[in-house]
Amino acid sequence: MSSPGGKSSSIPLMGNEEEPTIFELSCTGRKSYTMRSTGVPVNELKDLVDGMFLRDDELDLVEVSERDLVAHFTRLSHRQFSVDLGFYPLGSCTMKYNPKFCDEVASYESLVLIHPATPSKFCQGWLDLCFKLTGALKEITGMAGGTLQPAAGAQGELTGLLLIKAYHESRGESRKKVIIPNTAHGTNPASVTLSGYEPVTIGTNKDGLVNIDELKAILDDDVAAIMLTNPNTLGLFETEIAEIASLVHNIGGLLYYDGANLNAILGAVRPGDMGFDVVHLNLHKTFATPHGGGGPGAGPVLVSKRLLDFLPSPIVTQEGDRFIFTYPKHSIGRIHSWFGNAVVLARAYAYIVFHGNDGLKTVGELAVLNARYLKERLKEYFPPAYDSPPMHEAVLTAESVTKETGIKALDIAKGLLDRGFHAPTIYFPLLVHEALMIEPTETESLETVDSLIDSLEEIYRCAYEDPELLKTAPMNTPVSRVDEARAARQLKPVYKRDTPA
Ligand SMILES: *Cc1c(COP(=O)(O)O)cnc(C)c1O
């Protein structure tokens, strides 16, 4: 391996060549910082800290100059696709463009410079924001109270299930089962298992909705709850919600609403009005925090009256003109430190206040309109998996193209990469063969949605005219087609650092 000092010609200038790892760029003695001399005497660490707290071996840190560091990450950033760069129609994920003013608000010094341990009387502004955000989410979902602590949708699910468990236990009941339709998001059964419940799956009817007969057949007094993703992962709205709610409540069970797909129903209907007892939201999908990059998220949980006493503590409440912490009587305890992921909360609050009721309703309407338009224009090439009009995402199938040409959903997705789009979700939901799950979101213009549709038509024609060509896609991306099975099993080895030239 070469060191950058000696062989600068091996450093790629553009994003299209192999980029070395930061370890390969490391060169002993290079730094991205300088320490001014201050006149304060220099002490050895071992004279200040007890030896038992010090490591014996050197820490193997990367040593690079600021110049090389910035160039490395800038080059990497040119190899990326992002929501800021182009259309990202990844279904089930709501990868939408996030307005920049939300970032600006969330970086106000008056918010970010506050230490999370600040006593409540000195951070009234933050508590005010948490109080008002909870109030807005209550209003949006039609629920009675909530917590902002969970850091993700899945943690919201776990929180909600622990609330359900605490509720049943407070009534001296130890129910064991939670029902999950096979159109639920994959995190649902995982959360059920983690919470100590046993997931029980029910199927779908011919319209892609919960099979009510199957539901009726397994409802008994061992059922703690049903978890519904609505719209479900087929992008379809559960039309028999009212009946499902009364069936489950009648046997003493509760209703959990996976609201990660809230984009579809914003301002139109509310889970609380449908009879749900718990809802989690993904602020990092619907409310202006980028999702999918592994960054911080927030999965607030909203509850009906009967679960208020069990909410994680503390809760921010208003007393006169002050905001204070209160501690629900039978709280399940903390599930995240401090306020949760505070900056995500600030972004969401900015987004909600900016849009107001009418604006949020428009967000929902446009998200649904874009998905329905897309489905209509594409149906002769890639028919929808189910006939009912989709909500925020369209689940199409490439099954007949695959049968007739050998071109699979995977090849179609790769073809889209070559045409400047992120791929849609493919092979999910599992019950649809050769699924293409496309979520346009409300932020894309008609021209952009049209250009995706045109590209899909072009790919469709290419599948019949020159399938071999399509199988080589993508050709225009920094990395072309990888052996996915091998890529998952054999990760690139970590490079050992060079000794300096
Ligand atoms: C994304 C999603 C989740 C999980 O949210 P995370 O924040 O990724 O944990 C749960 N349910 C549905 C329907 C989702 O789309």
Can you tell me about this structure?
The chain is of the alpha/beta class and 501 residues long. The protein folds into three domains: 1-79, no CATH class; 123-355, Aspartate Aminotransferase, domain 2 (3-Layer(aba) Sandwich); 362-488, Aspartate Aminotransferase, domain 1 (Alpha-Beta Complex). 37% of the residues lie in helices and 11% in strands. It is built from 18 helices and twelve strands. It has helices at 22-25, 45-48, 66-78, 100-106, 109-112, 124-141, 153-170, 187-194, 212-218, 241-250, 271-274, 283-286, 342-378, 399-405, 409-418, 446-465, 467-470, 484-489; strands at residues 145-147, 177-181, 198-202, 223-229, 254-259, 278-281, 301-303, 315-319, 322-326, 394-397, 425-426, 435-438. The strands form three sheets. Strands 1-7-6-5-4-2-3 form a seven-stranded mixed sheet, sandwiched between helices. Helix 11 (271-274) links the parallel strand 5 (254-259) and strand 6 (278-281). Helix 4 packs antiparallel against helix 13 and helix 7 (153-170) crosses helix 8. The protein is globular. It starts with 21 loop residues before the first helix and ends in a 12-residue tail after the last helix. The model is unreliable at 1-9 (pLDDT under 50). The site of pyridoxal-5'-phosphate has 13 residues, from helix 7.
